[in-house]
């Protein structure tokens, strides 16, 4: 089969790789029908995630069909259409028992496209399948479902839930890429007074409005002043960092109010300055997190009911073997306007609705 292989920082290729095989009784083999590219994959290609060894197939989000199962698998069978979660869960360790699947100590956590071969291939082996794949209702198309493998659970859990968004809050999301947009959309579920999006790209600020932002600010044009004006100088109740660079984290720390929450979502490849000389007295709560995907069943029900704007997130579609071209477009999103790129064959042939720009 073919897969998209990481060969070191700045080096990758769509090439022949060995077919996956069941290795453990809890494994399944999934034929990949739809897959997408994550900002984390770009961080890997930049060398920001040194744990990824050269020769690894990238990707941790997919929808496909079960073609083979191990002897201990009980919840799915060959022929089932499933969502492959970005997080694998052993289900037995202390963290899994608390629903903290991202911190699994039994061999799971974020392993696909990280410590083992991932989903950007024609087939993928998924360990711990009973907790790591989700049967899909017919009402959720492949193109929509693949967005629930990572970005919507991440924006919701690591941003909205960790940030403790409440009714009447002022929420600021710094970074209006796909995860930031998912955070904006799911923050609206909690009836904040306003949501403000900050980004450098005009196209992404336009998309943020489409996903529910009440105000937008160019990151180069003093967003602190806009937030001060909107909050009477107090600052935002909840600020989410959805980029993963020092400047955006430090901006978040400047605009959060006393007693507020700063929820870091972004993947950081270099240190950020933590100005404790300013923050220690302000009762600010800072959270970090790898998504656990405990919310995936809830989000799937919402998607089936048409309550999530998944379709508007897809800006480009490609056949699976156009992976290199898709990476180039996704990696130059400021110029191409890319949000999420879906590769493969959708369950139904659906033309995506482009975001407003």
Description:
Helix 5 (151-163) crosses helix 6. Residues 349-357 have low confidence and may be disordered. Helices cover 27% and strands 24% of the residues. With 357 residues, the chain is of the alpha/beta class. Strands 3, 5, 6, 7, 8, 15 and 16 form a seven-stranded mixed β-sheet that branches. A six-stranded parallel β-sheet has the order 11-10-9-12-13-14, with helices on both faces. Strand 10, helix 7 (202-210) and strand 11 (215-218) form a beta-alpha-beta unit. The protein starts with a strand and ends in a 13-residue tail after the last strand. InterPro entries: ADH-like_C, ADH-like_N, ADH_Zn_CS, ER, GroES-like_sf, NAD(P)-bd_dom_sf.
CATH topology of the largest domain: Quinone Oxidoreductase, Chain A, domain 1
Q: Can you tell me the CATH architecture of the largest domain?
A: Alpha-Beta Complex
pLDDT averaged residue by residue? 95
Proportion of residues in extended strands: 15-25%
Which blocks of ≥5 consecutive residues have pLDDT under 50?
349-357
The tally of structural domains comes to: 2
What is the terminal separation in angstroms? 38 Å
The biggest beta sheet reads: 7 strands, mixed
- CA gyration radius, whole angstroms: 20 Å
Number of helices: 13
Query: What would you give as the CATH superfamily of the largest domain?
Result: Medium-chain alcohol dehydrogenases, catalytic domain
Secondary-structure content class: alpha/beta
What percent of residues adopt helix (DSSP H or I)?
Answer: 25-40%
Order of helices and strands: EEEHEEEHEHEHHEHEHEHEHEHEHEHHE
Q: What assembly state would you assign to the polypeptide chains in this entry?
A: single chain
β-strand number: 16
Globally, the shape reads globular
| CATH class category of the largest domain | Alpha Beta
């Amino acid at each position: 089969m073919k897969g998209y292989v990481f060969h070191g920082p700045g080096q990758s290729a769509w090439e022949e790789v060995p077919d996956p095989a069941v290795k453990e009784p809890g494994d399944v083999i999934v034929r990949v029908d739809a897959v997408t590219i994550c900002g984390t994959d770009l961080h890997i290609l930049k060398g920001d995630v040194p744990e990824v060894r050269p020769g690894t197939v990238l990707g941790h989000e997919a929808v496909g069909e079960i073609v083979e199962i191990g002897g201990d698998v009980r919840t799915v069978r060959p022929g089932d259409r499933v969502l492959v979660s970005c997080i694998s869960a052993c289900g037995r360790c202390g963290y899994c028992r608390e629903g903290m699947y991202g911190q699994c100590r039994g061999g799971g956590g974020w392993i696909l496209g990280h410590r083992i071969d991932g989903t950007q291939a024609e087939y993928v082996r998924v360990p711990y399948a009973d907790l790591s794949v989700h049967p899909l209702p017919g009402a959720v198309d492949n193109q929509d479902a693949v967005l629930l493998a990572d970005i919507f659970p991440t924006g919701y859990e690591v941003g909205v839930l960790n940030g403790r968004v409440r009714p009447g809050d002022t929420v600021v999301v710094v970074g209006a890429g796909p995860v930031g947009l998912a955070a904006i959309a799911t923050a609206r579920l909690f009836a904040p007074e306003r949501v403000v999006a900050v980004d450098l790209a005009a196209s992404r600020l336009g998309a943020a409005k489409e996903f529910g932002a009440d105000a937008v600010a160019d990151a180069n044009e003093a967003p602190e002043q806009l937030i001060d004006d909107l909050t009477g100088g107090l600052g935002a109740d909840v600020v989410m960092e959805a980029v993963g660079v020092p400047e955006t984290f430090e901006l978040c720390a400047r605009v959060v109010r006393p007693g507020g929450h700063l929820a870091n979502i972004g993947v950081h490849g270099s240190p950020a300055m933590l100005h404790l000389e300013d923050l220690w007295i302000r009762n600010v709560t800072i959270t970090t997190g790898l998504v656990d995907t405990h919310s995936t069943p809830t989000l799937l029900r919402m998607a089936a009911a048409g309550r999530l704007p998944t379709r508007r997130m897809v800006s480009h579609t490609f056949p699976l073997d156009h992976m290199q071209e898709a990476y180039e477009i996704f990696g130059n999103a400021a110029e191409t306007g890319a949000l999420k790129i879906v590769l493969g064959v959708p369950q139904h042939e659906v033309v995506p609705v482009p975001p407003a720009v």
